[in-house]
């Protein structure tokens, strides 16, 4: 007897892509507003060329699919602390490992780990995540339901855009890394 096991339906995948894009864009806005408030510069260097921060897309999507109505508040708060902090730490490690660059550095803040995460920002993630899960996401669900018939038509193009953006970002930052190494080698000669 053959049984098929499907983790995610096409409809769920389409929905996840929608939320990922919205939250990646909101993350880009939040980071640039924070950058403007702290440095008076609105645009902060980004891994992607477009106005999206994937890290801010992954954490909320994971949270909204993990957290349910019956979950105890303590568990929800723990997840709102742990998931974004883990996503930020893993993102920081991967970016440093593959591109030898830090897009953020918490080394000068208290209770930090390798400059990738720190307790003050992890506490901020709790509040932002609770805001997202409890207030923003119900509105996103409603918006998704209203535009689903249109999203059905455009989501493959948007998904391809993100795939292209990822490939180009990896290539751009890898090329920059190779160029930086060549320059360093020539200077050292």
What does this protein structure show overall?
It is a single chain. With 189 residues, the protein is mainly alpha-helical. It has one domain (10-175). Helix content is 74%, strand content 2%. It has a two-stranded antiparallel sheet with strand order 1-2. A hairpin with a 3-residue loop joins strand 1 (112-113) and strand 2 (117-118). Helix 1 crosses helix 2, helix 2 (54-66) packs antiparallel against helix 3 and helix 3 (73-99) runs parallel beside helix 4 (119-188). The protein is globular and about 45 Å long. The N and C termini lie far apart (67 Å). Keywords: Membrane, Transmembrane, Transmembrane helix. The chain crosses the membrane at residues 16-34, 46-67, 73-96, 117-137, 149-170.
Descriptive labels:
74% helix; ABC transporter permease; CmpB_TMEM229; transmembrane; disordered N terminus; two-stranded antiparallel sheet; 189 residues; mainly alpha; 2 strands; transmembrane helix
How far is it from the N-terminal to the C-terminal residue, by CA? Answer: 67 Å
Describe the sheet with the most strands: 2 strands, antiparallel
Biggest sheet strand line-up: 1-2
Kindly state the percentage of residues in helix: over 70%
The total of beta strands comes to 2
Radius of gyration: 19 Å
Overall residue-averaged pLDDT value: 87
The number of helical runs is: 4
Low-confidence stretches: 1-6
**Helix-strand category:** mainly alpha
Q: What is the string of SSEs from the N terminus onward?
A: HHHEEH
Label the overall shape. globular
The proportion of residues in beta strands is under 5%
Count of domain modules: 1
């Amino acid at each position: 007897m053959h049984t098929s096991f499907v983790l995610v339906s096409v409809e769920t995948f389409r929905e996840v892509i929608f939320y990922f894009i919205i939250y990646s864009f909101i993350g880009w806005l939040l980071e640039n507003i924070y950058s403007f408030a702290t440095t008076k510069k609105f645009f902060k260097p980004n891994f992607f060329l477009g106005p999206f921060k994937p890290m801010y897309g992954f954490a909320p999507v994971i949270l909204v699919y993990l957290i349910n109505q019956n979950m105890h508040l303590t568990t929800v708060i723990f997840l709102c602390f742990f998931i974004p902090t883990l996503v930020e730490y893993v993102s920081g490690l991967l970016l440093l490992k593959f591109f030898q660059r830090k897009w953020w550095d918490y080394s000068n803040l208290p209770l930090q780990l390798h400059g990738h995460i720190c307790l003050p920002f992890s506490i901020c993630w709790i509040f932002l995540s609770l805001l997202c899960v409890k207030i923003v996401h119900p509105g996103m669900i409603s918006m998704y339901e209203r535009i689903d018939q249109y999203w059905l038509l455009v989501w493959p193009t948007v998904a391809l855009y993100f795939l292209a953006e990822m490939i180009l970002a990896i290539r751009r930052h890898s090329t920059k890394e190779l160029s930086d190494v060549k320059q360093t080698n020539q200077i050292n000669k």
